[in-house]
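Kindly go through one protein, given below as sequence and tokens. The question is how this chain folds according to its tokens.

***
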Amino acid sequence: MEAVPAADSGKYIPASQRPDGTWRKPRRVREGYVPPEEVPVYENKFVKFFKSKPDLPPGLNADESDKSKQQQSKQDGELAGLSKSAKRNLKRKEKRKQQQECDGTAEADELSQTLQKTTIAGGSGNPSPLAAAALQGDHEGAEKAKKVKNLKKKLRQIDELQQKLDSGEIKQATKEQLEKLSRRKQLMEELEDLELGL
């Protein structure tokens, strides 16, 4: 709004319509009044300096910078509308794909080398009976080792319970504790049998 000189005294801002349809009254203003929209924004000397400073570093041609800006704008156009984290995730995915492609070729080479080294014995895909027995023996050995470990743990718990009873930490043993103590001999025999069987 610009102040208009009045015939009688001073200046006035003419009536105007608001966005909702209502009207503003005309306002009288003093001589020398400048509307807020026309007041220049204050800029300190540093802001003025940086505005007057050229965009390009000294010695760089504008043509070269235009080319690099165009390439960058193409990349930004592809990623337009994405947040910083989404852009970062896309870059990570591209890196992973590149690494997998490199790793995939290396794995393929290793696989082909191992296939060349292997020989086909028999024509069937069934393993030999000796190999099957060895695999089953390993499985049984693992089960025995597991049982031995379990029995040793139970015996250790029984010993700890016995020590607590002897020291007086536990004044009276419960029914379950007494049953556990009575199984000590049986567990010892099982453990000896398993260790001899190994």
Notes: Strands lie at 4-5, 11-13, 27-29. Confidence is low (pLDDT under 50) at residues 127-131. The first strand starts at residue 4 and ends at 5. The CA atoms of residues 151 and 191 lie 6 Å apart.
